[in-house]
Amino acid sequence: MAQAAAGLTHGPVAANPASGSQKIRVDKLRPARGFEAKVFGLTEKKGHRGVAAVRSELQVIPAEEQDQYVQGIPQPGGTSGAIWSKPTVGRKTKIVCTIGPSTNTKEMIWQLAEAGMNVARLNMSHGDHASHQKVIDLVKEYNAQSKDNAIAIMLDTKGPEVRSGDLPQPIPLKPGQEFTFTIRRGVGTADCVSVNYDDFVNDVEAGDMLLVDGGMMSFLVKSKTEDSVKCEVVDGGELMSRRHLNVRGKSATLPSITEKDWDDIKFGVDNEIDFYAVSFVKDAAVVHELKNYLKDAGADIHVIVKIESADSIPNLHSIITASDGAMVARGDLGAELPIEEVPLLQEEIIGLCRSMGKAVIVATNMLESMIVHPTPTRAEVSDIAIAVKEGADAIMLSGETAHGKFPLKAVKVMHTVSLRMEATIAPPPTPANLGQAFKNHMSEMFAYHATKVSNNLGTSIVVFTRTGFMAILLSHYRPRGTIFAFTNEKKIQQRLALYQGVCPIHMEFSADAEETFNNALTLLQTQGLAKEGEHVAVVQSGKQPIWRSESTHNIQLRKI
């Protein structure tokens, strides 16, 4: 299990003879010369580092060669650079990895899991059911043979996408040029291209700003006819086939769940996946419709809503209330809304999810440059750090692991940066209204006090669960110690892999509570997750009583 640092090693301490006290030499707090090279394993030449390579030309760097780039990263528990002191807890923030051509083999999925992947994401915008079935089977194979780890499976729906049509060759466009988008099929000339959405003309007005691929190119709408939209190029470039189109400040009037999505959702039900990430959710009705479908199908799958359209923002509260969690999908969100609003919305969505007891994932462009480069930009490192500091349950990699050259390196950077932040920041404050999200259930009070015990005594928390409820509740209180969630359900173990601070462990329960407690504590010790003589807080609470009456709840402090 990955472990995190408990604090910083500040170097030698100088004694003050007069006072008998000690003071830290401030100069020793500064990173040593060559700190960047130690952390990232490489020195970088000055200059622009844009992602210039064409995706089709990318080749995955072999795992053994990727490892050479991370030699020198201060690994948890190591002494590289004497930067960290000895760790005491594991990484709390979870990592979602998108599986694609770079990572869809048994070897890569195994290595991603060992490097720190907690959730495997299937992007249904790419590939077919056969290719995704292969990935699902491999993840399930890993889960079946892994003794102390579990990877959740998330199916991400394509959603209603507006795209340009096919072109015989890329069209170079310069600012000031006129260009037309039409709903007529099969058009692909130097000054006009088809759009796959019949209501496109009705959705746009003169003065709207049309963005290609989230802003890589932009067009100002000048006028429109019955079947075409005439534009002026604002930001030029090469227009290629099947480009994603957004209108700044507007969402397409397409249904959030398309026919293709329903087919993919059924595929997920058949394969008993753990999570759906539903694209372009605009209102709570979509979530209720999906949840009713899953209930009728007898499927126990949680629904994560992707907040990525302008229409979803006024309905944030009701959408998140209806769901099991949210994903801050910053790509399309930053295309439909001014980009300066995205950081504020990210913070707001994380706070709202935490106050409502829902999982929250921060996604898109987190390590985008690592699709083609072996080291991240410093801004990307800060982006990860901010998401961790704001209290996200998970952070996500998209193209970095799906089709990038350095998928393992990207996971290791995300893992290391998360550890570093968690080692030095105080846990985010508990939202004042968190208890309201759980209907003032008695378990909420015990989760609060278990967190206090963990924070004040420095203990981990042990909980036994058949539904995951108590572990999820504890996660939202963000205790300093790890939440060891023992469950006798493999499905619940996989689901809990998404939640911040939770280390899910599968173990058969005995009919005798004391025997189960002892088995659990012995397992922690044998797997190196706890040491002899260490104290843990054992919590017995939740919606479904185990070895207790429904009216009895307790917290025990036990010595291993």
UniProtKB/TrEMBL annotation:
The keyword Kinase applies. Its EC number is 2.7.1.40. It is found in: Plastid, Chloroplast. Pathway: Carbohydrate degradation; glycolysis; pyruvate from D-glyceraldehyde 3-phosphate: step 5/5. Pfam families: PK, PK_C. Its cofactor is Mg(2+); K(+). Gene3D superfamilies: Phosphoenolpyruvate-binding domains (3.20.20.60), PK beta-barrel domain-like (2.40.33.10), Pyruvate kinase, C-terminal domain (3.40.1380.20). GO terms for cellular component: chloroplast stroma. NCBIfam families: PRK05826.1, pyruv_kin. Belongs to the pyruvate kinase family. This is Pyruvate kinase. It comes from Salvia divinorum (Maria pastora). The gene is PKP2.
